[in-house]
Structures are given as structure tokens and as C-alpha cells.
């Protein structure tokens, strides 16, 4: 009889190897003779001096080897990618749209493979991986229909550089790349260091087959920053990441005439006062755990009127206790899988432990779903939901986005205190207020320092025509989304909305 507990773990590794073999058959040009991935740069596949392991957070297995290019190689790549701009920009919009449409056909043809590799790449469940890929495909289909009116009277910039976080490589990064190229730019992007590089390399290979002027390079951020941000042939920069790195990119760009759109983290707060719809809030709390709160629009700070704290805690615990955390590709139902790496999970565990030593109360500590793992599987990247109360003001968790399923509850006695605690991070991408009083809701919403504010509802990035940006330190440069994304990386008579130094 087959001992499934004994072979379960090797079978999981076998699945990831089978996926990589499928990828090699689909795009053999993307691999060297030893099965290592190469970098597509200006129509050529570049051999790096070294590789780094793409480790799946699902079980710690090595999914593939990704290229580790040096600074000089990437600088040369920028020159080559910039040379693709003029002939591409000279083509008519309908001709460029035809090429983009051909790329979309190829992406659709390999959609299931992209979804499965993406799940292993960054630990998404198959439904959330499907959503990421499908939002990209639906999004570019919409831009193909709307680009005529959005680009009227505008001209492309040149070579646009994309440096993005790992969490939404298709619906954010790849969609941006497709729209920027449709608008007439050539494009270069960096493989996110923490994950997503395998699925993205496959996607870029398909875009190159169609004839799009797009390049993808892999390497350490500190080594590639000069080429991807400071190089004189870079005409625009789209950045998605943390405030520290984003602030450094902004410092460099604001002294130049380059176009930029920089999305940075902020603590997204949900303020609750004079409120009774706890069933409705429970549904929002559950929805908010999408991808383990590893998203820029995750709500992790709950600012609650003191008299409502017991009802909030009861609603939160009842809702979150039903969430299942486990291996997202095993077949058992789970709501979310691992964080992006064991080191990220360990960082959050250490911050929780330190806060507890300082008197923080752990109001809820979730459990992993034991039946949602293979025998002896590596679990270092898995962290179930945690709710903390009474967090010290000098704790990192008090002031910054945890980027994981760690929620902070803050009790307040007045409207002014509620606003102060909700606005703790000097600007955010989204915020919400829950209250039964419409006038109070409008008054509080106007004073929340977020780009988008929901009333009795979560807010998200949005798709297609909906604009997206940030307030305060959460954003710098042009806003994006719909017409804003096109204007951000083209020149023309229309004003650009954004968060500028002035």
C-alpha cells in the first residue's frame, strides 16, 4: 500500500518540477541548457554571470534559478531597450494595438500554466492567482478599446522603467507594462527580488514573441538602481514598494525632469464609531484577509470607539476563527497560504513577541489548518491571523504596515482621537469609516488622510477607469489608473493629477 504521508511531500516537489518542465516546453528560449532562466533584453536572451534561487514560500523548495545580472549588464540593457523606442513609437496606434492583442492571445493560451506557476511563485491560492492573471487580461482588453480617446493629442515618453513589489505581478506590474507599451513607450522591468520572477519571465517571453519592446532584468535592487532609475535613457519610472526604498527613488527623481509614479506603503485604517451593523462588518473583515493581507490596500489598523470595542472583538474573533491557513496548492480548502518568505513571517513573530513583552494583549491568535499540509512540510512562512491591543507607540507595528495578517486594535474616546489614530502614518492609500450616521460618516471621511475613503465598505485599488494614488508619504508623482495611467507616461496638453513636492 502507498504511504501517502511519506510520499506527500516529494509529490508536491514533483508538481513544481512538472510545471517548470511545462514552461520549458512553452518558451524554450527563456532557458539555458541547464534549465536556468535568462533575461529577455531588447529581443535577446541575456546570460547572467550568476543566478539566484526562486524559493517557493509554499514549502521552501527551489522552483527555478533566476538571472542575477550585474550593474554594467543592466546599464547596457537600458541602452538597448531605449533603442527600441523610436521605431516602436513611430508605428500607428492601431498597429501597436494589433501587436498587444497578439500578446494577449498568447497569454490567454498559456493562462492556466501562468496561474499555477504564479501560485508556487509567491504562495497565492489558485483562485487568487487566477484573479491576478485574469484582471491583467481583462484590464488590457479594456485599454485596447479605450486607448484611442485616452492618448488623443499625446506622445510617448521613451523608455519607462518599472520596479514593483512581488505581490501582484500580473494585475499591477504586467498590466502597467502592457499599457505603457501600447501608449508607444519601450519598457524595462525588474524581477521582484522576493518572488514572482518565474511566472513573469514566462509572460515576458510571450510578449517578446508577439513583438512588444519589453525587457525584464533580474538582480539585487541596490546593484540595479543606478541603471533603472538614474540612467539618462530612462524617461519615466513606475515604482511600487516600501517607503524607505521609495523615498530614495523619489529623492533621485525629483531633481530630474523624469516622469514618475511612486506607490509606497501606508497604514490603512478602519475607523468605527456609532455603529451597529456587525454582521456586515464581519463580512468585510473576512474579505480583508485576501492573500493574507499581503497587499497595499490591506486594512490592518482598527480604530474603534471605546464602548464598541467588546462587540468589535467578538465580531472579529468569530469571523477570523473560521479562516483556514495552509498549503494553497494541496487541494484542501484554505483561505490563504504562506507569507512571501519564512524571514518575513519570523520578522512579524518577533515584533509580536516584543510587543507582548511590553504589555500588548494578544486578543486572538489563529491556528494553522493541520489537514492542509503534507507530512513534514516546511511551514516557516505560514502565519495565522493575530489581533493585538494596547500596542506601545514606539513599536514598529504601531507605525507601519505589517504586510501580513497582523491586526492592531486601538480604542478611542472621542472623534478627534479617532481621527488622530486613523491618520497615524502620514498618509495612506485607502481608509474607511463605519457608522450608522451618514452626516458623521461624511465629516470623518473628509478628514481621513487617504486617497480613497470607504463608508461602511472596504476600498481597493480599483480597475480600468478608476484612478489610484495616495496621500502624504504613501505616494509621490502622478496618479495612475485609466486615463491617469496613460497620461502618467505620455506627454500632452492635459494636466496630470498627482502628489508632487510643491
TrEMBL record:
Pfam families, A to Z: Aldedh
Highest taxon of the lineage: Bacteria
GO MF, one example: oxidoreductase activity, acting on the aldehyde or oxo group of donors, NAD or NADP as acceptor
Keywords: Oxidoreductase
InterPro entries given in the database record: Ald_DH/histidinol_DH, Ald_DH_C, Ald_DH_N, Aldehyde_DH_dom
All residue ranges annotated as the Aldehyde dehydrogenase domain in the record: 52-490
Protein name per Swiss-Prot or TrEMBL: Aldehyde dehydrogenase family protein
Amino acid at each position: 500500500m502507498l504511504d501517502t504521508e511519506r510520499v506527500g511531500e516529494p509529490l508536491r516537489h514533483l508538481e513544481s518540477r512538472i510545471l517548470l518542465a511545462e514552461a520549458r516546453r512553452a518558451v524554450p528560449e527563456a532557458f539555458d541548457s541547464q534549465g536556468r532562466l535568462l533575461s529577455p533584453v531588447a529581443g535577446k536572451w541575456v546570460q547572467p554571470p550568476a543566478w539566484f534561487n526562486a524559493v517557493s514560500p509554499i514549502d521552501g523548495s527551489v522552483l527555478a534559478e533566476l538571472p542575477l545580472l550585474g550593474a554594467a549588464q543592466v546599464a547596457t540593457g537600458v541602452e538597448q531597450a531605449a533603442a527600441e523606442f523610436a521605431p516602436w513609437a513611430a508605428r500607428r496606434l492601431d498597429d501597436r494595438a494589433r501587436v498587444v492583442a497578439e500578446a494577449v492571445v498568447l497569454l490567454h493560451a498559456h493562462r492556466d500554466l501562468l496561474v499555477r506557476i504564479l501560485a508556487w511563485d509567491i504562495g497565492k491560492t489558485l483562485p487568487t492567482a487566477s484573479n491576478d492573471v485574469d484582471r491583467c487580461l481583462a484590464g488590457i482588453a479594456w485599454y485596447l478599446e479605450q486607448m484611442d480617446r485616452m492618448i488623443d493629442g499625446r506622445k510617448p515618453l521613451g523608455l519607462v522603467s518599472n520596479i514593483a513589489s512581488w505581490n501582484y505581478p500580473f494585475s499591477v506590474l504586467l498590466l502597467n507594462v502592457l499599457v505603457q507599451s501600447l501608449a508607444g513607450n519601450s519598457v524595462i522591468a525588474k524581477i521582484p527580488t522576493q518572488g514572482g520572477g518565474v511566472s513573469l519571465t514566462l509572460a515576458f517571453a510571450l510578449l517578446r514573441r508577439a513583438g512588444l519592446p519589453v525587457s525584464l532584468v533580474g538582480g539585487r535592487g541596490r546593484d540595479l538602481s543606478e541603471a533603472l532609475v538614474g540612467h539618462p535613457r530612462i524617461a519615466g519610472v513606475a515604482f511600487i514598494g516600501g517607503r524607505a526604498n521609495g523615498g530614495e527613488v523619489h529623492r533621485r527623481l525629483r531633481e530630474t525632469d523624469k516622469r514618475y509614479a511612486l506607490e509606497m506603503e501606508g497604514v490603512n485604517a478602519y475607523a468605527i464609531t456609532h455603529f451597529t451593523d456587525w454582521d456586515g462588518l464581519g463580512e468585510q473583515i473576512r474579505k480583508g484577509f485576501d492573500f493574507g493581507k499581503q497587499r497595499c490596500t490591506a486594512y490592518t489598523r482598527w480604530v474603534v470607539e471605546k464602548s464598541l470595542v467588546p462587540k468589535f472583538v467578538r465580531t472579529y474573533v468569530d469571523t477570523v476563527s473560521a479562516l483556514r491557513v495552509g498549503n494553497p496548492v494541496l487541494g484542501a480548502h484554505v483561505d490563504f497560504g504562506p507569507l512571501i518568505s519564512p524571514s518575513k513571517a519570523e520578522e512579524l513573530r518577533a515584533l509580536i513577541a516584543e510587543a507582548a513583552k511590553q504589555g500588548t494583549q494578544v486578543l486572538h491568535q489563529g491556528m494553522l489548518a493541520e489537514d492542509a499540509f503534507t507530512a513534514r512540510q516546511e511551514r516557516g512562512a505560514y502565519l495565522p491571523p493575530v489581533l493585538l491591543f494596547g500596542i506601545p507607540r514606539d513599536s514598529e507595528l504601531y507605525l507601519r504596515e505589517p504586510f501580513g495578517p497582523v491586526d492592531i486594535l486601538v480604542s478611542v474616546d472621542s472623534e478627534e482621537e479617532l481621527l488622530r489614530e486613523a491618520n497615524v502614518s502620514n498618509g495612506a492609500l485607502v481608509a474607511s469609516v463605519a457608522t450608522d450616521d451618514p452626516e458623521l460618516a461624511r465629516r470623518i471621511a473628509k478628514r481621513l488622510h487617504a486617497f480613497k475613503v470607504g463608508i461602511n465598505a472596504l476600498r481597493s485599488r480599483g480597475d480600468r477607469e478608476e484612478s489610484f494614488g495616495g496621500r502624504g508619504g504613501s505616494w509621490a508623482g502622478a496618479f495612475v489608473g485609466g486615463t491617469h495611467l496613460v497620461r502618467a507616461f505620455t506627454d500632452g496638453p492635459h494636466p496630470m493629477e498627482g502628489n508632487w513636492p510643491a
